[in-house]
Amino acid sequence: MTSKAASPTKTGLIPMMIFWFAVMGLLYVLMTHYLKPKQAQVLANGDLVINRSQDGHFYTAGIINGKEVKFMVDTGASLVSVSEKFAQKAFILGGVPTTFKTANGDRRGRVVEGVGVSVGPVNVTNVKVGVGLSLGNEDEALLGQSFLSKFDISMNKNQMVLRSR
Span of the secretion signal (predicted)? Predict the structure, then answer.
């Protein structure tokens, strides 16, 4: 006589799958929160403070032409730079065609003047923006000297401090 008992591999499979999906979902939520760029902190004297991330770069949340963006601060970049896709979404239109000299070679793009850029409570209204950058995500941008030149920049341990001139 044989009795049909449920196989241990079949009965344990569904709870195990549920467990691992829950673990992966929790990790996804935590990593999404952890990797989201933080807003620049504002000190009592009005200085903006941007913390260094785990990868050694400085990232901050910001706004270009009313659209949210994740900035990577690049003190060596001449311009605030965005992708063509982001420029379309933010209605950054027109501009002067140009060729950008980048670490990855020459890249065709355009320069648009008079764009509004905000980091924290600081809004600069007449910023030159380079359009044609290609980062990993369309909502990522470089925060270059066309914005940063309005500030005195200092480093303090793992923080970058921007003080209005």
Answer: none
Q: Is residue 148 within 8 Å of 162, Cβ to Cβ?
A: yes
Query: Reduced to 3 states, what is the DSSP secondary structure of residue 164?
Result: strand
Read out DSSP for 76-112? Answer: T-SSEEE-HHHHHHTT----EEEEEEETTEEEEEEEE
Starting at the earlier edge strand, list the strands of the sheet with 151-156: 41-42, 48-51, 159-164, 151-156
pLDDT tens-digit map of 26-50: 888 777 666 666 677 776 687 889 9
CB 58 within 8 A of CB 38: no
Q: Which CATH architecture has domain 41-164?
A: Beta Barrel (2.40)
